[in-house]
Amino acid sequence: MNQQLKHTLKTYGRELIYALIIPLAAGAFSSVLTPDSSEIFNMLNKPPLSPPGWLFPVVWTVLYIFMGLASFLVYTSDKYTKPALTLYCTQLFLNFMWSIIFFNLQMYLAAFFWLFLMWFLIIITIVLFYEICKPAAYLMIPYLVWVTYAGYLNLAIYMLN
């Protein structure tokens, strides 16, 4: 391990743990609040290109780790980060609420519009992250791609159900 990385981890180790825990905890708590999501998803009429249900928690775990790393990189940069991190937290809250709207309330059209708002905020977050730390922005791109795909699934499920 190089000296700069050792110094960063020694200086910001706690912040890295928090940055990873926050999105992972948001995802886990959302999952706890939507305990029947797998059963509901399995019963829905789904569009072509729908993934198997087991793939969702795997992908989301990876995405939450990427998001946490991205927020850590922004937080530890030398630039002013409050607007970018505030927007990051806002889109993370929208992410948290989407499952509740979609699975618990089964309001598929409202969930789609909620997802669209989240998608828009993710784009702005990526732009702000890019201005602060390019690798942080790049770490958010898989999340944007997955949410775009989720938008396709969400809208199609609304139309099919």
TrEMBL record:
Q: What parts of the sequence cross the membrane?
A: 16-34, 54-75, 87-105, 111-130, 137-160
Compartments reported by the entry: Membrane
The domain of life is Bacteria
Report the Gene3D superfamilies cross-referenced here: TspO/MBR protein (1.20.1260.100)
What is the membrane topology listed in the Swiss-Prot or TrEMBL record? Answer: Multi-pass membrane protein
- The protein's predominant localisation is membrane
Extract the PANTHER family matched here: PERIPHERAL-TYPE BENZODIAZEPINE RECEPTOR (PTHR10057), TRANSLOCATOR PROTEIN (PTHR10057:SF0)
Belongs to which family? Belongs to the TspO/BZRP family.
Tell me the protein's name. Answer: TspO/MBR family protein
Q: What is the lineage of its organism?
A: Bacteria, Bacillati, Bacillota, Clostridia, Lachnospirales
